[in-house]
Amino acid sequence: MFNFQFNGWLTPFINDIIRKGSESRIADLDFIRKEINRFLDGPQRADMIKGNNYYKGIHDILGHKRTVIGEGGEVTEVENLPNDRLVNNQYGKLVDQKVNYLLGKQITFNTDNKVYSKILNDEVFNASFDRLMLEVGEDSLNCGIGWIYVYYNEFGELSFRRFKPWQIIPGWADDEHTKLDYAIRVYPVLLYEGRNNEKLIHKIEVYDNKGITKFVKDGSTIYADGSDWQIPYFYADNMPLGWDRIPLIPFKANRNELPLLKRVKSLQDALNLMMSNFDNNMQEDVRNTILILKNYDGENLGEFRRNLATYGAVKVKTVNNSDGDVTALTIAVNSENYKSIIELLKKSIIENAMGFDAKDDRLSGNPNQMNIQSMYSDVDLDANKMEMEYKASFERLLWFVNAYLSQTGKGNFDNEEVDIIFNRDILINESEAIDNCAKSQGILSDETIVAQHPWIDDVQDELKKLKKQKEENMAEYGLPMGQAPDTKGDKSAPTKGDKTPEGDE
Fold first, then answer.
1. How far apart are CA 355 and CA 420, in angstroms?
2. Please, which pLDDT band fits residue 11 given cuts at 50, 70 and 90?
């Protein structure tokens, strides 16, 4: 562990403070129990789980049953009809689209302090953090909110962990949901009593300014979780320490914390049902033809269907001078109707979720940048709201980062301003962008032009390469890069009509 030094933003506490805090928590066990029961059975958690399930392809259509109007007008389930349950997961596609559009590229933290900038971009918010943010972004859209827990690992390094939103009960201090008074994490754990007996319990972790208090919920009973049920957030010189803030950072997709599925669930369900019905109707090719029987030589319709399916023929007979016969009344399935409705539903899902259609007609041929930007307009507007919420969350996260850097002697960066840049993954017309960059020389700075070039990932690295190339050019020719030597005034240089010495080439 690092040898931390105490500053004003840390709250050291000793065993008697832990004891007093735990006594107050024990007195509030009824409150914790009520909060947990309300959350576990509440609609908000149900919406979170539903959003996560739909993203993974677990849709309501998978429980669909075929029904008919039975005797007395009652709806009756039938099991002898095709009942394919198709999932066309446009919702999951839109979540991936939005997450990768905003978070698919590394988030950049720009600051005038070069040391601070390198620490943030290379050490703290590295590739592992970018991968974590993709998961949190999925949570934000599927559940309306995602959570990152800040902690120290076994090596004393600042680390980040994702908490599942349907396991977190936030205790907000304000109506705008910007500050936490406390947070409760509740998650299921499967215990084995003996070899074959399984028992489901719930672990409970209560987070406040002092530390974490652990409980176990077994049925309706809540009790302390072992001997280490009270733990601080970290230690320094064997002294338990706590943050001035609860190290749980919310990342919201929108200020109302509404899951994306709320916008499109009915449309997604209708799309699944329409495709399933079309598939079922195509399989019922025999049933699409109503057969009219005259003097059928058999006992029942079940036998008739079996003979027709097995032999492709049935026997009829003449009764009372009336010839037997089998005639057909055909019911055609109009595939064009299904196709039109399915395409309309897909388009409606994209519009309501504010996504974009990668097969948009505006991308045909060689689209200009205006057409591309028009196609991205909806997803860009939605990303603006999400980015604003995320920037506020990163400001809270940077407080913990700065505290860590200060206590580990890497520097005090509390007063440094940081510009958080989300490098959106947008399709562009490269030829048009390169042409615009070339035309901007002499009007804009090299750094601005390089930053807009579609082939550049690391602006500072490219500027260093340009500087090195200019220096080499000056050393070799004594001229700026790109400028050719002027030979007009050089009498020694050969001109038109001059002959070279014999033997020279």
1. 24
2. very low
Closest CA to 167 of 211, 205, 213, 223: 205
Map residue 159 onto helix, strand or coil.
Answer: strand
Q: How much is the mean pLDDT over the chain? A: 81
pLDDT of amino acid 77:
83
Helix (H) or strand (E) holding 49: helix 43-55
Q: What is the pLDDT of residues 108-145, one digit of tens each?
A: 999 999 999 999 999 999 999 999 999 999 999 999 99
Query: How many other CB atoms sit within 10 Å of the CB of residue 280?
Result: 17
Distances (CA, A) of 234 to 18, 410, 414, 480: 14, 19, 21, 57
380-403 pLDDT, tens digit per residue, is 889 999 999 999 999 999 999 999
CA 369/CA 430 separation, integer angstroms: 9
Instruction: Show Cβ contacts of residue 273 under 8 Å, excluding neighbours closer than 6 positions.
Output: 61, 64
Helix, strand and coil content of the chain, in percent to the nearest 5, comes to 45, 20, 35
- Listed in sequence order, the residues at least 6 apart from 56 whose beta carbon sits closer than 8 Å to its beta carbon are 92
Among the listed residues 402, 489, 364, the one whose alpha carbon sits nearest the alpha carbon of residue 9: 402
Q: Please answer whether residues 316 and 355 qualify as being in contact, where contact means their C-beta atoms are separated by less than 8 angstroms.
A: no
Q: Which two tokens stand for residue 203?
A: 């672990």
Token pair 């504010």 is found at 354
Tracing tokens 């260093």 back to the chain, one arrives at: 464
